[in-house]
Predict the 3D structure of the following.
Amino acid sequence: MTETNVVREVSLPFVSELNEMAPRDFISFFLKNKNEIDSKLISCGAVKFSGVCIESLEDFQLIVDSISSKFLSYVDGNSPRTKLSQNVYTSTEFDQTQRITMHNEFSYSSRWPNKLFFSCIKPADTGGETLLVDSREVLIKMDKSIVAEIEKRGIMYIRNLHGGMGIGIGPSWQETFETNDKNDVESYCRACNMDFEWTNGGNLKLRQRRRGIIEHRISGEKVWFNQIDQFHPYHLEEEIYETMKSVYYSSDDFPTYVTFGDGRIISENIVAEITNTINELTIAPIWKENELLLVDNELVGHGRNPFTGVRRVLVAMSE
Ligand SMILES: [Fe+2]
């Protein structure tokens, strides 16, 4: 881990206003100012470039391919999205009437992207903001007893993926791992230190133990880095949560669930406290066209407001 003198800035995101810069001009600008941009990213957690002419998937692809490398696929992702090209996905296609709770991408996994790139090709009629929250602030403001419990016990993420065939809630294991071959899934799980179990009806149960609070890879600052409130069904509408409790034999069989790393229950009160703390710190910058948002995934959590109309946001993830 490198030691750096990080000067914290309050503004999230840092905004760089450019003047209708064509993609190739933006690439030159970015590469020329890369050191300064990297340091802004580490101090602010996110940098938004406005005035970058990104009108198509091809523009976005060209930019991200030129300013970053080592892209990650969305294999093992927990949200529906479409792969548009080699490194570019749609942002989540999750029900547009619902808010997507705050999370650090792939924080339930042993491998996660360091940087996320977003651009809004078509803003929604209303809502649809990509929500942002500073994960350092979340850790500072979080109830100290919750932080202590996570640091002591870690977190266990549980997923139950159905086997396709049109039944089951959430994505199938085939969609999640982009394969129909169980051997591929098992190899992936072993490589990612994930326990797997094929259960009745061709379903797949996954368990992943993670720390939940980590040190930033460059600055060493401690950050809140988990998806407790997203994996716990308490965040769902009360009616849906109550139905799930009556349908499933055990909470262990919910599509997603989370406990402390030693199996101890994370109470609904704790989930509520976590959610409230995060929501109090969350901001909702409005999307405009011709913007590129660069997010440090370890420093900033993200989510999405519900929206009306058609919204098209492109995403790429890199190391
Ligand atoms: Fe996400």
In short: The mean pLDDT is 90. The first helix runs from residue 23 to 32. The radius of gyration is 19 Å.
